[in-house]
Amino acid sequence: MYYSFGPPKDSFKKLAPKIDSQNMPIIDVQNLGKVYPVAVKEPGMKGTLQHFFRRTYRNIEAVKQVSFSIEPGEIVGFLGPNGAGKTTTLKMLTGLIHPSSGSVRISGHEPFARRPQFLQQITLVMGQKQQLIWDLPALDSLRINAAVYGIEEREFRQRVGELAEMLSIQTQLKQPVRKLSLGERMKAEMLAALLHRPQVLFLDEPTLGLDVNAQTAVRQFLQEYNQRYGATILLTSHYMADITALCDRVLVIHQGSLIYDGLLDGLLERFAPYREVSIEFDSTQAVTKDQLLTYGTLQTLEGCKATFLVPADDLTQMVSNLLNTLKIQDLSIAEPPIEDVIAKVFAAGKT
Amino acid sequence: MKAPLRIARTLISVYYAYMVEYRAELIFWVLSGSFPLIFLGLWNQAAQSSDLGFTPAEFARYFLGVFLVRQLTVVWVIWDFEKEVVQGKLSPLLLQPIDPVWRHFFGHVAERFTRIPFILLLVGLFCLLYPEAIWQPTPYACFWGSLTLILSFCLRFAIQYTFAMLAFWVERATAIQQFWFLFYTFLSGMIAPLELFPEAVREFALWTPFPYLIYFPASLLIGLPVDLSRGLITMFIWGAIAIIINRLLWKSGLKHYSGMGA
């Protein structure tokens, strides 16, 4: 099942800052597994009564035999369709849930023991979950974090100033969190999660629901944080742009198993060397389906709108062909959705 | 010692600010705790028509004591904790190097301070209605009454937080709290002083934690005779039992916690 290619892992080390790791991976995961018991209930009254008196459970293997290691300073994308086991893995890496099998070491610590030295070094940002107190300004929640992490008052002011500047939310920190926009809230959450200057960042969909500008800002911030503090980042995202902007290396998980661990370029070139070309042609001209088929693989055709799947190498030729021969009103080129790429990786991993 | 004090101070000041945001709701919460004043009316009438061993003024004093204790020992941690577990909100709290219980505990402490003006207002009203019941507490009553009031809050918090641990296994841990409330109402002295209970029931009740949640501190505050050392020992024993069970459940509950929805 496991599929790995691209350059050997040593090549990642050149990306890592020279910190006291002595070439030890900061994240080391061996044969990690998680099995959940899930209550099963048949529909209808009979099922309800059975469920009430005698509950039956089915074991779901959410994560199976996952192994990987990450060097200090790396930014790694963690990809997979919904329910693939990404969040469960992140929860085990942060010590929120207890693994059913295997071992995890983060900076030499066992996460589930949740020792203060471990918690001082990590953070987890969850796109749709918040730690800030809703009815108070973010600064109040930050004061709690400063006390809890033992950050002195002067150091606290300095860090808040620095992070707020990097995130451009200086003025919003004094407004109640409920009054902030989604993007501002996410930035404030990120500030709270990074106030103790963690060395390992676990990010679960950090840009979910944000508009394009806010997404870019968050990405830029993460890049800067990584460069400034040499932090290691493992992030999941549904937005391909997050991954391409931040990660050289990706891990792909599908149905609980790790099926790819390597360079992002390798993943895209190998499994998605295609682009999606969408056009809207002028309705005054008569264009047949057969005619459109000559330009490339036609995916959809609805009225005057058509979508093609074109090999990346043929893209320029195909687009100039289209523009020369048809009256085009609108044209857009996109990478195939990440889910499609992953599905292809999975299919390849199986065979 | 410096760090824990700073954490406590910060948590109290931030949660005080948080509670003040709910000042309108606070008035209703305080009023909803004025049950004892209703019982006072009932017992007052009863005392006027027959000899119950308590004069109307003594009843008035007792229920004012009950009102004060109830106001200052109110605990709702089970509702908050259940929500945190079921909605996965516990996860971010678990990632901080401090036990989540302290946020709840100091949140409760901070809330006490926001109640004080409303409590004083109601006490003032009471003095206007029952001027004959006004009394001057002795230094003994002030010291032991206040101390047992604080201990009573800690005991109630420890017991309810222990029930809250069940949220790791059952989705509605608050149902257990409702069941507990039945015994609390009857045996704590909330509806009547324990002196009015049959001897056997009173003796039984004094072995349970309930009288120490209301009757015991209220009696000390108003100067009713109680067995102080027995009361303190019983409170400590129940507190220790609750804390031990709590820590055991917390440890195994965390293993069970799946970070639902986190």
Walkthrough of the structure:
The complex is a heterodimer of chains A (351) and B (262). By secondary structure, chain A is an alpha/beta fold. Chain A is built from 12 helices and 13 strands. Chain A has a 6-stranded mixed beta sheet, sandwiched between helices. The radius of gyration of chain A is 24 Å and the shape is globular. Mean pLDDT of chain A is 83; it is low at 1-21. The longest helix of chain B has 29 residues, at 101-129. In chain B, helix 1 (2-20) packs across helix 7 (101-129), helix 4 (56-73) packs across helix 11 (215-222) and helix 8 packs antiparallel against helix 11. Chain B starts with a helix and ends in a 6-residue tail after the last helix. Chain B is mainly alpha-helical and 262 residues long. Chain B has helices spanning 2-20, 23-32, 35-49, 56-73, 77-86, 90-94, 101-129, 139-164, 174-187, 199-207, 215-222, 228-256.
Query: What string, H for helix and E for strand, traces the elements of chain B in order?
Result: HHHHHHHHHHHH
Please bin the fraction of helical residues of chain A.
25-40%
List the uncertain runs of chain A. 1-21
Q: Calculate the mean pLDDT score of chain A and round it.
A: 83
Note the beta-strand portion of chain A: 25-35%
Order of helices and strands of chain A: EHEEHEHEHHHEHEHEEHEHEEHEH
